[in-house]
Amino acid sequence: ALGSGRSVLLAAHCLWCASRLHLPALHKDDHHRYLLSFWFTFLGTFGSGALSAFLFMRPDLHPVPAMKDPRLLPFLVAAWYFVQYTYIGHRIMSASPVRLLCRLSTTLSRAGRICNNSELAVALYPGVYGAQLVMGTVGGAGGKLACDTMKHCLGHLMDPAEVSLPGWSMRSGFLGSAVYLAFVHYLPEELRLEPQQVSEW
């Protein structure tokens, strides 16, 4: 049952990201650049996990997501094609209830990555508070940072990059990491929560 629930959460996350990370919208000539469009969607969907894996440099503890879970790439390919290249997929993702559920799934996934990154950073870098906050923030904003980098390389980055002018992704990632670290590790012991309690929420 738990595995099925995670599959549904993953599928909804992929659908939401495929609907939001639409490279053809950047330039009309990009519509038929399928591989480029897919990689843009991939970076936005799983960029946080991939960037975190490269920064941690501990594949035994934090492998690249696509190399750990065999469901990721098939789910993303199906969601990307369904949403971006079929009429019915576009129509379904235009329905408000579907968009709300998919967005909620992405929010839950981000929260999980922020908490997992923060927890692993505490174990790997005890007492290095800056590193713990940075890794927690990357867990929530890595996808946005990766997409900004790709758009910059393509000449499509029209707004300030997230890393130079933090927006929702970095601010919420930083705040989420700070709150998690405070309530699980750094408040007085009688006020702390156990990591299991946070995951149950």
UniProtKB/TrEMBL annotation:
<keyword id="KW-0406">Ion transport</keyword>
<dbReference type="GO" id="GO:0016020">
    <property type="term" value="C:membrane"/>
</dbReference>
<dbReference type="Pfam" id="PF05197">
    <property type="entry name" value="TRIC"/>
</dbReference>
<keyword id="KW-0472">Membrane</keyword>
<keyword id="KW-0407">Ion channel</keyword>
<feature type="transmembrane region" description="Helical">
    <location>
        <begin position="36"/>
        <end position="57"/>
    </location>
</feature>
<comment type="similarity">
    <text>Belongs to the TMEM38 family.</text>
</comment>
<feature type="transmembrane region" description="Helical">
    <location>
        <begin position="69"/>
        <end position="88"/>
    </location>
</feature>
<dbReference type="GO" id="GO:0012505">
    <property type="term" value="C:endomembrane system"/>
</dbReference>
<keyword id="KW-0631">Potassium channel</keyword>
<dbReference type="GO" id="GO:0005267">
    <property type="term" value="F:potassium channel activity"/>
</dbReference>
<keyword id="KW-0630">Potassium</keyword>
<keyword id="KW-0812">Transmembrane</keyword>
<keyword id="KW-1133">Transmembrane helix</keyword>
<dbReference type="InterPro" id="IPR007866">
    <property type="entry name" value="TRIC_channel"/>
</dbReference>
<dbReference type="GO" id="GO:0042802">
    <property type="term" value="F:identical protein binding"/>
</dbReference>
<keyword id="KW-0633">Potassium transport</keyword>
<keyword id="KW-0813">Transport</keyword>
<protein>
    <submittedName>
        <fullName>Uncharacterized protein</fullName>
    </submittedName>
</protein>
